[in-house]
Amino acid sequence: MSTNTIRLRHFVAVHDEAVDEKAEGAASISIESIAYWAIVASIYMGFGFLWYYSFKEKIFDDGGTMPAGLAKGYAGTFVDSFPGLNATWTILGIVEGIAFVGFVASILTGEFLPTRRKPILVAALGVSLLAFALMVFGQELTAEFEGVAQAFGYIGATIVTLLLVQILPPRRGIWKATER
User: Fold this and answer.
1) What is the pTM of this model?
2) Could you tell me the sign of the dihedral formed by the alpha carbons of 107, 109, 113, 118, in that order?
3) What angle do CA 142, 153, 141 make, to 5 degrees?
4) Residues contacting residue 104 through CB under 8 Å, at least 6 positions apart
5) Where are the alpha helices (DSSP H) in 65-173?
6) Half-sphere exposure for 113 (CA within 13 Å, toward CB)
7) What angle do CA 167, 168, 173 make, to 5 degrees?
8) Which of 48, 64, 99, 162 is deepest in the core (most CB within 10 A)?
9) What was the pLDDT predicted at 179?
10) For residues 36 and 58, is the Cβ–Cβ distance under 8 A?
11) Rounded to whole angstroms, what are the CA distances from 91 to 25, 75, 164, 168?
12) Is the pLDDT confidence value at 20 over 90?
């Protein structure tokens, strides 16, 4: 193998120092690498596109103005008087935008690589939790309990994603956590 091939493989592969690549366990390295890249791509694509389109709709498409149907539902609630419906819509859009920027910053700093820690990704997922919590608050105000339950599902899925990120390389990984 050429030196460039070895460097590229080291760059993208999830390595186990205890496994000899010529031994029987060598195949598991490539399977773990495939799993790692599928997980990372799913996180960035799922959350990134979710927050991009939500942010874009609220801030650019709607110009920070809450759609009439939603505004009618929130009329007379606490947020109607403070900070106001359009301000509330804009604040939610800004929080979604911050989450999106966090995912972009994580990509730009190379946190998606298996050798890098992922503090910006963790922060972006934390902001995602805040955005979902704001949505729960809004839906509680209008007694949209079915939407509240759905938003709690999103919060739970985000927490599971946060836990998953915590075990991704360069940390110990789930396949190592059970070994002693």
Assistant:
1) 0.83
2) negative
3) 10
4) 48
5) 68-74, 78-81, 85-108, 119-141, 145-167
6) 10
7) 55
8) 99
9) 55
10) no
11) 51, 17, 29, 32
12) no
* Contact predicate 118/92, CB 8 Å: no
For 6, the token pair is 């070895």
Pairwise CA distance, residues 66 & 92, whole Å: 11
SS3 83: coil
CA distance 124 to 147: 23
Question: What pLDDT was estimated at residue 30?
Answer: 77
Hunting for tokens 């596109």 — which residue is that?
49
What rounded mean pLDDT belongs to the chain?
Answer: 87
pLDDT at residue 33 in the model:
87
Dihedral of CA 144/136/147/58: which sign? positive
Tokens 């919060």 sit at which residue? 155
